[in-house]
């Protein structure tokens, strides 16, 4: 067995903070209905498309 596998330690994962949770659970923006900027379109199941000018 290699030394990398022997010495591999589990790193504790901190719980999600209130701020991060609020950002994740934020509803879609009325100013960005297609979700191009926020990544959260108003229509469920719709996937935002990234254009060349977004890169």
Report on the structure:
The chain is mostly helical. The chain is built from 2 helices and no strands. It has helices spanning 3-6, 18-24. The radius of gyration is 19 Å and the shape is elongated. The N and C termini lie far apart (43 Å).
Secondary structure elements and pairings:
Layout: H1 3-6, H2 18-24
- Please state the overall shape, judged from the principal axes of the Cα atoms: elongated
How many helices?
Answer: 2
Instruction: Find the structural class using helix and strand composition.
Output: mainly alpha
Main beta-sheet annotation: none
Order of helices and strands: HH
Radius of gyration: 19 Å
What is the residue-averaged pLDDT?
79
How far apart the termini lie comes to 43 Å
Task: Note poorly predicted spans.
Answer: none
The share of residues in helices is 10-25%
| β-sheet strand percentage | under 5%
Number of strands: 0
At a glance:
With 55 residues, the protein is mainly α.
Question: What are the main properties of this structure?
Answer:
about 55 residues; mainly alpha; elongated; single chain
């Amino acid at each position: 067995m290699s030394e990398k596998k022997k010495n591999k330690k589990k790193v504790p994962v901190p719980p999600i903070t209130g701020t991060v949770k609020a950002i994740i659970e934020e509803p879609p923006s009325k100013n960005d209905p297609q979700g191009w900027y926020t990544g959260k379109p108003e229509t469920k199941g719709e996937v935002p498309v990234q254009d060349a000018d977004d890169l």
